[in-house]
Amino acid sequence: MSPLSNDTFLRALMREPTDYTPLWLMRQAGRYLPEYCATRKRAGSFLQLCKSPGMACEVTLQPLERYDLDAAILFSDILTVPDAMGLGLYFEEGEGPKFERPLKDENDIRRLTAPDPHDELQYVMDAVSEIRRALDGRVPLIGFSGSPWTLSCYMVEGGSSSDYRKVKSLMYSRPELMHQVLDVTAQAVTTYLNAQIQAGAQAVMVFDSWGGVMSHDAYREFSLRYLRIIAQGLIREHEGRRVPAIVFTKGGGLWLEDIADTGYDAVGLDWTMDLGKARALVGHRVALQGNLDPAVLFASPDAVAEQARRVLDSFGNHPGHVFNLGHGISQFTPPENVSVLVDTVHQYSRQIRTAR
Predict the structure, then answer these.
(1) Which residues form the catalytic set?
(2) Is the model's pTM score more than 0.70?
(3) Which of 42, 43, 154, 265 is most exposed by smallest CB count within 10 Å?
(4) What is residue 162's predicted lDDT score, i.e. its pLDDT?
(5) Domains of the chain by range and CATH?
(6) With bands split at pLDDT 50, 70 and 90, how would you rate the model's confidence at 356?
(7) How far apart, in whole angstroms, are the C-alpha atoms of residue 348 and residue 146?
């Protein structure tokens, strides 16, 4: 593997001084890019795109050809893990992901086992290896997975949910069964991320997208606990350098200090949290990632630039910040506004550094 020519992202995750604030975007390869839409059409379906290492590599690199981003992120989906568990993932146009065989009863849960990432998920490892070769040291590659709680929501609900009725009913009425699902899923996520690291991922991220829908106590018992288990089981050094790990709980600002103590190198924040206050709370324990409201990218170029500067000013002239959105980029985002965002973050953060 070629040495990295730009490791700013990795150094920021380790809270080391950098010349500017590095930037990448959640869902940076997606439907807002016409070239992505063309590749997806050629693939025939979203799932086929995910399962084709060559096409996954192609769309992973597309945003890097347009924008001066500081990291690439594997193109895949968080639901590849429960699909490999035998739940039968499929996508219906306009309705999002669904499972043919969701976890409906105790027997389903007792039969659940963690998949071998080098068997049912080998296509992901092949994509990671192919992307690393194609990047040729240009920027680091991020691997990722959903969190046990977030994956379990889909596995029990059978798809997306507005009220999480089924999974919360299981959580409150049969907590031992809920823990069984989470235990197995945590094992699966840990081995899956470690396999991505061994295949070439230089940082990994756990998306706890639905952690914020739980009560205060339930979050600690049914999400935070398993995030900590994963952090403890991750490979932390590979190819002679640290492999940083990021965790992101959408709506998790109330639990920031607890999340910072789970063992990850960085904590992602959504747009509801002030970065300056967050930095004061966590001190030097972790780096922070975020946290521009994705809706800002619908505004004028001047407004995009102004809001980006506000995020940077909020964090201040300190090490340990990776600029990102507070959640995934919308398919309706004008691509030219992303150029404004990237250029503003790089230029303005350099000005902040030189003002020291």
Answers:
(1) 27, 31, 40, 77, 154
(2) yes
(3) 42
(4) 86
(5) 8-293+319-327 (3.20.20.210)
(6) low
(7) 33
